[in-house]
Amino acid sequence: MVGIRFHGRGGQGAVVASKILAHAYFKQGLYVQAFPSFGMERKGAAVSAFVRLDSAPIVERGDIKNPDVVIVLDFSLLRKVDVAHGAKPDALILLNCKENENQNPIKGSFRVAGVDAVKIALHHGLGSKTAPIINTVILGAYARVSGDLALSNLLEAIETGVPVSPKQNMAAAEAAYQAVFRISGDVNAD
Questions:
Q1: Other C-beta atoms within 10 Å of 82: how many?
Q2: Strands 92-96 and 111-115
Q3: Which residues pair with 52 in a beta bridge?
Q4: Cα–Cα distance between 160 and 91 in angstroms, integer?
Q5: What is the pLDDT of residue 52?
Q6: 1-15, 19-33, 128-142, 176-190 — which is least confidently predicted?
Q7: Residues with Cβ < 8 Å from 173, sequence gap 6 or more?
Q8: Which residue has the higher pLDDT, 30 or 61?
């Protein structure tokens, strides 16, 4: 079983991203779960969302304590949340960050990649300068570095799972697929 944990802020779309990702893997024939975890439910507060996937039915419930993958939608969370907490050794960590911010702030033996999801979202007209919509963008980068998610399945899941501007979201995901970069470890980003 593979566990994926999203870290974001309320309003960034981490929950929607988890549902889209689960749908994309379901299209590949896997069993999936997608669910959120909220604390103080307010815009801007730290939130988590989770995806489980397996080739067999999933009976486990509850938060994913030891993820294989961590996806961080807001780089500033690294100052407040230990996003790598409990992550398995050699876990994949994907950060929304500028390429010049990639002085690997993550300690441990992880595979770390980044993508400037804000820049790509703004280029494709997703959200505003003060509130860019980056959830589908970071999923495009994830498809590249995961090595097991077909971009075509992700794009179909975005098309059916995004209520506004699906074509722009799909184009932004494709752009992120090409723009992801390696920060540390063995990452399929070059």
A1: 12
A2: parallel
A3: 3, 33
A4: 29
A5: 97
A6: 176-190
A7: 136, 137, 139, 140, 143, 151, 154, 155, 158
A8: 30
Mean pLDDT computed over 109-117: 93
Domain boundaries, the chain: 2-184
Nearest by Cα to 97 from 122, 121, 72: 72
Region of 164 (left: φ > 0; alpha: ψ -120 to 50; beta: rest) is beta
Q: What is the pTM of this model?
A: 0.92
**pLDDT reading at 61 higher than 90:** no
Residue of 16, 107, 154, 1 lying closest to 64 (CA atoms): 1
- Find where tokens 């999933």 sit: 58
Give the torsion sign (CA, 53, 3, 119, 130).
Answer: positive
Give the CA dihedral 158, 142, 69, 54, nearest 10 degrees. 50
End-to-end CA distance of the chain, in Å? 27
Which structure tokens are listed for 189? Answer: 């980003």
Of all residues in the chain, what percent carry a pLDDT higher than 70? 93
Q: How confident is the model at residue 188 (pLDDT cuts 50, 70, 90)?
A: confident
Q: How far apart are CA 32 and CA 17, in angstroms?
A: 14
Q: Residues 2-184: name the CATH superfamily.
A: Pyruvate-ferredoxin oxidoreductase, PFOR, domain III (3.40.920.10)
